[in-house]
Amino acid sequence: MTSSPPPLLASRIFAQNRPLCSTGASHYKLVPHSLDIPLLTRQLKDRKVAKLVLPNGIKGVVISDTESPVTGAALSVEAGSWMDGRHDGTAHFLEHMLFLGTKKYPNEHDYERFIYDSNGQLNGYTASDHSLYYFTSVTPSAFDGALDRFSRFFYEPLFNDSCVEREMNAVDQEFRKNMEQDGWRVLHVRKELANPAHPFSGFNTGNLETMKLIEQETLHTWFHNHYSANLMHFAVLGRDSVEQLAEKAELAFGPIKNHNLPTLSTANTRVFPESLHRTLTWIEPIKNLRELTLAWEIPFKYNDAAAKPAKLAAHVLGYEGKNSILSMLKREELAEGLSAGKSHLGADNLLFEISVSLTEKGVRDWRDVVGRIFQAIASLQKETYPKHLFDEVNFMNKIAYQYQQRNSGIATQWCGLLRKEGIDTFPRQSYFIEQFDQEAVQSLLGEFTPDTCMYTMIAQEAQIDLNKTEKWMGAKYGLQSIQSEVEGWRDAQPLDTIQYPKANAYIPQDLKMTKRNNDPPQLLLDAEPGKLYHFPDEEFAVPESAYIFNMKTPKIRPGNARSVVLAALYTRFVHERLTELSYDAASAGLHYDVSVSSDTGIRFIVDGYSEKAQLLLKSVLERLQNPSITLNEFTIYKESLERSYKNAAKESPLRQAMDKLSAVIYDQYCTPAMLADAVQTVKIDDLEQFSKSLFDMRYIEAFVGGNVTAEEATSAWDLVKTHLSGSPCSPDLVVKSKVLPFPNTRPAYHSTATPVKGNAIVWAVGLGERDHWLRTGQELMTKLMKEPFYTELRTKQQTGYIVSSGGFQADKQLFVQAAVQSNSHDPRDLLARIELFQETFLRDLAESKDIEERFESVKSATLARLRQPYDTLGSKLRFFNYLAYEESANFDMLAQRLAVMEAYTLADLRQFAEEALGRDNKRRVAVLATGNSPENLLFSYESCASPDALKNRSKL
Ligand SMILES: [Zn+2]
Questions:
Q1: Are 679 and 653 in contact (CB under 8 A)?
Q2: 110-136 burial by CB neighbour count: b if 16+ within 10 A, else e?
Q3: Which CATH number fits domain 274-401+430-489: 3.30.830.10, 3.40.1090.10, 3.40.50.970, 1.20.1250.20?
Q4: What is d(CA 138, CA 144) in angstroms, rounded to the nearest whole number?
Q5: Could you tell me the distance, in angstroms and rounded to a whole number, from the CA of residue 59 to the centre of ligand 1?
Q6: What's the CA-to-centroid distance between 250 and ligand 1, angstroms?
Q7: Residue-wise pLDDT tens digits, 916-946
């Protein structure tokens, strides 16, 4: 993979030089549009956008989409953790505190309650040089209230004393959660090795140790010194006209103070010292990872926004097709994957990295891997960068822009792009590469020399003594001088096998639309070996289609670890055989997926621009039919699969508890430990046999939709039938995992020990078999529970950083679920708190004063989303495929759910909640996961056999 592809969604910029406002009350200035490429997606053709600068200097963009099912807003400020000052973690802690009360809305839970009750989501993050806050997916009628609450973060936060004391624990728990994650550990080793004069070297997350002296006053001062309108950008998405949205934005963000603060500049300071050149840093991971990274701190001129040389360089270095670096490394059994791309370290420093996922052999022979990469770079430097690659990328950027679909997170996405690009050109440079600068790309490739490279290896098989321990996260690492190796790589010889990519055969030429209609999906075929639905949807008029095939087979049984492992190895081979062409396809907006679905068999999907979709489908089928298994690859993939199953034991305690809960709920389920055992016994003959006979008996469930005719759907069906030939199979022969309802006898829990730090609990209550009535109760009740549960267990009690609740469906059974991951509380204690919360929740539902209002708000927001449930063609087609096969082709299901919910009253909900959460419902199960570190035991009660034993503990 290269660096991330261009964002897919944007809208036509609409603005003139005169004010848009009609009332004359506003004072914002409009910024002229920078892009005049019309949108071709019919749903968005009336979307209008304006860019503005408010009198206080804040810059922003308003997106008016009068039919949008949701609204949202985001704000960024160029203030981040590099400006922490005396107390590490100040910027991050302040970010947390902004959510907890403003002058007009002093209640610490007010914002969360309002957003969650409006069906919305919210979050914020603190980066090195900026912070960003957003709410999204809020129902249109709640937009004004959400914006009013949100905007006050930035001019009248309270930093309430009692919250300051408590919320510090949330940040500390966040830090402790990160300590166990390899990504964070590697980052902190890099920080420790960085130039101490560059702010990158600081510890930025914060913990109790670094933050204990922070008080309300500290936060007010920091806020005043770093949050200023001239450093802010915003974006809003709403249903109002652009004029109204601009006025609302001015009303909301206009009161933010402008202190005319400068941005932080690190332009003349290197992030990493030159002593890291010609040095290999070995880092020990917690999981069994093997990752080699070559990194260069490159001059800032390569940030050229119009020509994007780093993006074009990443496109060829990260290429996965024929004659690519990855192909070569795979052939030599050195690597499993590769990525390349540029990243920003703050506003002024650039890093370019090539990362390789290595095989066991690759770690052993890492010198060969690096040598090959430098040979490959020499091969590319020898030729000139071909213009056709630039043309292809730009053509795809253009159609991706023109055929974009609705994106409920667009305000958040645009706010992030806007702060990077700046208001004058936005969104032109975020979406397009405006000029081809061949020289700049060549010269950038010339920067990638062995002498200026920083080498990092993350692997458990360290070849040197890891004699250093990183200060904050505790990661072990060591430095190896590789001076003589570097000398050898200096005159790396070009290779014939490395070449620039050829013209991409998947780039679409023809984007015309076929005839479509508004009818429900048609059953085109219903005869052995299965069914084919066709759905030429009219609602989303984009030149895209999806081909979805479920090959049900009795050969894969969800409770049989051996069959699951064989299926996983088989799909791995299929993916490997497709890599060289799927990269081209993906660059041309065409994607495929082949996966083992735990209860259906093998599922494959091809979707994207319709014109070449069948071309890709045919290639997928050829590989499914014959994945060409070889012994060398078999050995690599088998080891890789075993490693991934074993890594599951190093996952967070919450993930492990969730996995155990699935094992409890499904009658047939293989845990990662079972799969790890099974994979060891598999031999290449077993896989060959499995792959040859996999489709001997199969039942096909097919769904083809979008910009595609019935003839094309039928020809795809014929392709599948002939490539994967076999005899028909009754769907009854396919073994499906069923859900066992919890017995209504007595609540029960299971305790499990994990080798990681931290504790977790997952708690689930069975509600019974689904119908529309039960499902409505579950949906409305869990939405009403979301905020109070979070407020109680996290904000007030500070039991953990991850605190969540909700509902889920498994098979046809419905459940309510709650989960906490904690570094301070014993799981048994958490269980008691969750139960206590349910009692309070039921009482509030029966008695609290604002419950009627909250019920109406949650219900109307949920109804509004049900009336307009899809943002994209892809999500609609997948949902209709689900209805076709999992819901007996009941394509009216949403209308039925709507009707039931419309009639549902608060009295209904009270009765439902009492039956679901009251003590008469004993269908309750909890999984408690306890980590093994000493800190887990700090507050866990010890059981003593007798009063004397208890009494005499003090004498020990
Ligand atoms: Zn945080």
A1: no
A2: bbbbbbbbbbbbbebebbbbbbbbbbb
A3: 3.30.830.10
A4: 10
A5: 26
A6: 29
A7: 999 999 999 999 999 877 766 667 788 889 9
